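User: I'm putting together notes for a lab meeting next week and I want to include a structural view of one of the chains we've been expressing. I don't have a solved structure, so I'd like a prediction I can at least talk through. The sequence is below, exactly as it appears in our construct file.
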Amino acid sequence: MSSTERTRFYRDKVNGKFLGVSAGLADYTGIDAIWIRLGFLIATITMGWPFFIYIALGIMAPKKPSHLYTDRQEQQFWQGVRQSPARTAREVKAKFRDIDRRLAHVEEYYVSGNRQLSNEIEKLR
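Assistant: Thanks for the context. Below is the predicted structure for the 125-residue chain, given as structure tokens.
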């Protein structure tokens, strides 16, 4: 599944109450669905027209695929990507830097006591 499929809005009929729009917005933004439902309710009571937008989204938005995320951690990652792609990229870069640093420590530990292994690694560079 491509990243564009994971970053678009879907109706979530499985977790939804009526058309799945509020549950879909909750999945898309990471905000709890109860707050989205409450916001739609207040906006509809005060202005009236948000109800029509809700219905239009319920009709036009595609249904969320059941295989969109493999687990909760992946779902949270993609919510973060949708909220702030730049921050997510920084976090991923930081994780790679940490992995690189830890691998350098492991390499230093094993190479410091083994001269032959040290020479082989230097030949590879």
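A couple of points you could mention at the meeting. The chain has a mean pLDDT of 82. DSSP finds seven helices and no strands in the chain.

User: Perfect, that's what I needed.
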